[in-house]
Amino acid sequence: MRAEIEKAVQLLRRGDGNSVEQALASLQSTVFSFSMRVCGHREDAEDTMQEVLLKSVPYLPRFNSPKALVVWLYKVAKNRCLMNRRKSKFAPARELSLDELMPDRNELEQLAGDGRINPESFAIRSEQAARLREAVHRLPPQYRIVLVLRDMEGLTDDEVAEITGVREGTVRVRLHRARLFVRKELMRTLIAGSNKKVRTQKRPSDGGRPARCKAMFAELSDYLDEQLDDSLCEELERHMNGCGPCQVFVASLEAIIEHCRNTAEDCSPPKAARLRQELMQKYQQVKALLRQNS
Asked: Quick one: pLDDT at residue 169?
């Protein structure tokens, strides 16, 4: 759950003008951050922030549960982003195949043979926010929204499921494939920068992957999120201990997840300040009406 929203609920409970303004500032930052990551365009993100927050004002005094506000706010923002007039900028709404996202034998050989492509070097090179944003924006929207909510906004699986209207199992599947997609996009740049040549070969039906490696790749998100049962976890770790390419692959995926969690989008101060004053006035009017009717 976003700490900003939990803090906003606490501030709204205090009720004084300064606390309410701080709460609205936190909500502005949260909605803008999400909208910027999903829409990919500052003007559209600001429009979404304005519409969502103006719509939310009559309901804010009634939210006592941070989780309820999280789900409601993100659901409204998600719907607004999907209806955005620039929706043509979204990647096509297609299904991602797990097989196409996993590395083939050529990439595994590259990982094993190039000493510069290792966990440490990847973690350093992955700190490029612009490339990460581009990779996220190339995701089909149903995967992009899950990745943004789960890894960038810090929500739980059940909250993402409630916001998106899909089962938690579907959230886990989409999250894993979204992570693999972003990793693959960023690794293209890394491998392209390497001078080491890798022999090209015709890919067989299994993608040219060693069978044990292929079986492991499908479980990686559950492993990294500590949602894999002990026996499977031990089996996966035994395999990795003897497989250098898989160690680097897992490290690269872990670096992507960590980088997603540490990115931030700043709200535009001038427009945010003007909107906050309008929201303050509307909020005080709503509070006054509630007092009269109580």
From this structure: 95
Q: Provide the number of structural domains found in the chain.
A: 2
3-state secondary structure (DSSP) of residue 217: helix
Q: Which tens digits make up the pLDDT trace of 104-141?
A: 667 766 666 655 555 555 554 545 677 888 899 999 99
Q: What is the pLDDT of residues 50-59, one digit of tens each?
A: 899 998 988 8
Classify residue 280 as exposed, middle or buried by CB count within 10 Å of its CB (0-12, 13-18, 19+): middle
Helix 244-261 vs helix 129-137: crossing angle, to nearest 10: 90
Predicted TM-score (pTM) above 0.90: no
241-263 burial: b if 16+ Cβ within 10 Å, else e = eebebbbbbbbbbbbbbebbeee
Task: Say if residue 110 is in the same domain as residue 256.
Answer: yes
Q: Please give the structure tokens belonging to residue 193.
A: 């920068």
Domain range for 196: 98-261
Say whether both 253 and 273 belong to one domain.
Answer: no
H/E stretch holding 112 reads helix 105-113
Domain CATH for 173: 1.10.10.10
pLDDT in tens, 144-187: 999 999 999 999 999 999 999 999 999 999 999 999 999 888 87
Quote the CA–CA distance of 118 and 121 in Å, as a whole number.
5
What's the CA gap between 58 and 160, in Å, rounded?
A: 24
Category of 173 on φ-ψ map: left (φ > 0), alpha (ψ -120 to 50) or beta: alpha
d(CA 250, CA 266): 30
